[in-house]
Amino acid sequence: MIEIDHLTKRFEGAVAVNDVSLTVKPHSVTVIVGSSGSGKTTLLRMINRLIEPTSGSVRINGRDNKSIAGHELRRSIGYAIQGYGLFPHRSVAQNIATVPQLLGWDKARIDARVRELLELFQLEPDVFAKRFPHELSGGQQQRIGVARALAAEPELLLMDEPFGALDPVIRTRARRDLLDIKALLGTTIILVTHDMDEAFAIADHIAVMDKGVLVQYGTPAELVHKPATEFVAAMIGPEERPFRLLALRPVSEAIEQGTAGGEPIPAAVSQREALSNLVWTGRHEAPVANDEGQVLGKVTMAALCQQAAGSP
To answer: Distance between CA 176 and CA 259 in Å, rounded?
Structure first.
């Protein structure tokens, strides 16, 4: 889907991004992480040419992005930012319709797309379409921002700290929304964040930036098991490593025979989520059920702690 080849950006002699190369697979979520000033946002913005590179190239589906007029390129790529970037004087429907209108879609097609996206984000169209941004909660504004980025049916969605302004509960819901959208629409997503928990929650691949250099690019499991540098190890966090390992494993791999009382834990969640559930509810064990509600066995606090303490 995307090939970034020896990409470099200098600002008045200072190197912001230094010779970065990586490939992003179609229908995947790639998260770019790094400390402030590491070049992650600059790298993201060179994909849709909000920032022009000093050297190197970006190919999207085999086509050099410099061969496409900037405004046409950006209309074909979804872009969502922290703070949502909604036009305050335009209604929710008008905000979502921005790019389709620029592309010359007819009114019926635009209206249908607006309704489809509002329903996708579980926002009742007849209630929300005519509202203005100031009438929405932070979580609702975030959903509208992503809906607007998806309005023209882009194959690629770029996101720059999109959940940074949300409280923890809404932020978790927003991440799940994003994964649901990827599964439903097959959208390729590249997301910038400084939050490693966020990266591990949603990424298929993680790119770690340090002082403009790509120091490691791999799956979450590869980063946990074999951090390429001390910086990567520090980003993962030595104290967090056991929980990162649990986040990579489904609770279905820790199921034991037997029964337990209380609300079942879904088999599809991670072992980390299962451990959090047990701690939050004050239980030492809980049943595990599949999507149909069939109980498959139980998971215990002791087994999960043993998993966290064990070698990869």
So the answer is: 29
